[in-house]
Amino acid sequence: MSHSPDKKMNIAFLASHGGSNMQAIIDAVKLGRINANLVAVISNNSGSMALKRAKKENIPYYHVSNLTHGTPEEMDAGIVSILKTSGADLVVLAGYMKKIGDRTLEAFKGRILNIHPALLPKFGGQGLYGKRVHEAVLKSGDPVTGVTIHLVDEKYDTGPILAQEQVAVLKDDTIDSLAERVLKKEHTLYAETIAKIISREILLPDT
Ligand code: GRF
Hints:
Elements: E1 9-14, H1 20-30, E2 36-43, H2 49-56, E3 61-63, H3 72-85, E4 90-93, H4 102-107, E5 112-116, H5 131-140, E6 144-151, E7 161-168, H6 175-198
Parallel strand pairs: 1-2, 1-4, 2-3, 4-5
Antiparallel strand pairs: 5-6, 6-7
The protein binds 5-O-phosphono-beta-D-ribofuranosylamine (GRF).
């Protein structure tokens, strides 16, 4: 799949909870900082704030879970079908808590982005998500953590890294205070990275 910087990219989101990263990207599109159409929001959580945000922003939204699609394979097929029908060029995971299925990975190889609230490869992998990441960072005594944006592959948090930014760990940080500072950085870095992908300052494989 090739992409010309003049053409608007179609972005779809997968999100499970708050969707504050998704909102930051929506806001950047509205401000003209990202040249993209927002074509779909998919959530496994029918009551998620992410779906509420999508509704408010007039972005087509979909609930795909084991309630709507019985098995993980059926969910995977449902997700691919929505992504293809919506014309998505880029799939942005924004706090999506389910593993991406093989069919989605194959159909959007090198086109699925994820954000992780630490400096991968440190503090990543199965079980390291949300506050657990910040808890592990604080326990380690590392003076620096950060944000990573990477392409998604078949494992957890292992795909090629596209962007990273550091956040200092302060002496009296708690899990919550650190999480809050890292999340702020996530919001700016995710939007900037997507803008750079669209302007081809960051090249995705085979584009
Ligand atoms: C973020 O910390 C992100 O790094 C992680 O999940 C969280 C999602 O937050 N993958 P939000 O739903 O975007 O507010």
